[in-house]
Amino acid sequence: MEKHSVSRLIGAPPGYVGHDEGGQLTESVRRKPYSVILLDEVEKAHQDVFNVLLQVFDDGRLTDGQGRTVDFTNVVVIMTSNLPGDPADFFRPEFINRIDDIVRFHELTRENMAPIVEMQLEAVRHRLDDRGIELDVSTEAINKLADLGYDPAFGARPLKRTIQREIVDRLAMILLSRPVEDDSVAEVDVVDGQLEVRVRVPAHQV
């Protein structure tokens, strides 16, 4: 976030382009004083932006480019950061001291993946339920999806694409190739080290 971003937050001063428009931050809070503000990757902000935030945290108000005082006392500010170490080593002490709480998230490990796989599969399960098809995924298949969908650098981000490629796309091909009646079961298992997807028809159809 560059230095000129301050003008975008609180509005341009008199005589500058955009003075009549108000700032994105101050105008939003002025119109909706009960708000939650999310500042993503706040460590990338210019120092002048931190000075603005200090005023919000300290005084609970900001003066916009038009001279209006905007009340921030009913605003919750949430900031995210990708700093690898202690935030106190990066941010100024007066900034850290005005933060109510800091929540640290540890990196995902391979051991964390199985519950995430099951949560992602719930979306697939609901879609199949709408067609009267049950989804049955073995424990071995869940572990295989966890292996394929985990990346040490990106955590679980590749998992959604993995489930799309390994399960959803394969099921789509099966469902397009032949009619499948209600009460069929889509089974996902591991055979010879590879994921296998098949649709088993109920006994009355056999």
Descriptive report:
This protein has 206 residues and is of the alpha/beta class. 38% of the residues lie in helices and 17% in strands. The chain folds into 2 domains: 5-96, Rossmann fold (3-Layer(aba) Sandwich); 110-205, Orthogonal Bundle (Helicase, Ruva Protein, domain 3), CATH 1.10.8. It has helices spanning 5-10, 24-31, 47-59, 93-96, 113-129, 139-149, 159-177; strands spanning 35-39, 61-63, 69-71, 75-79, 133-137, 184-191, 194-200. The strands form 3 sheets. It has a 3-stranded mixed beta sheet. Strands 1-4 form a two-stranded parallel sheet. Helix 5 crosses helix 6, helix 5 (113-129) packs parallel to helix 7 and helix 6 crosses helix 7. The radius of gyration is 26 Å and the shape is elongated. 19% of the residues are buried.
Which key phrases capture this entry?
single chain; 206 residues; alpha/beta; Rossmann fold; Helicase, Ruva Protein, domain 3; 2 domains; three-stranded mixed beta sheet; two-stranded parallel ribbon; 7 helices; 7 strands; 17% strand; elongated
In short:
With 206 residues, this protein is of the alpha/beta class. The chain is 38% helix and 17% strand.
Order of helices and strands: HHEHEEEHHEHHEE
Our measurement of the CA-to-CA distance between the termini, rounded to an integer number of angstroms, reads 64 Å
- Percent range of helical residues: 25-40%
Q: Give me the side-by-side strand order of the main sheet.
A: 5-6-7
- How is the biggest beta sheet arranged? 3 strands, mixed
Q: Please state the CA-atom Rg, rounded to the nearest Å.
A: 26 Å
| Mean model confidence by pLDDT | 88
Number of domains: 2
Report the uncertain regions: none
Quick one: overall form?
elongated
What structural class do the secondary elements suggest? alpha/beta
How many strands?
7
CATH-derived topology of the largest domain: Helicase, Ruva Protein, domain 3
CATH class membership of the largest domain: Mainly Alpha
CATH architecture of the largest domain: Orthogonal Bundle
| Percent in strands | 15-25%
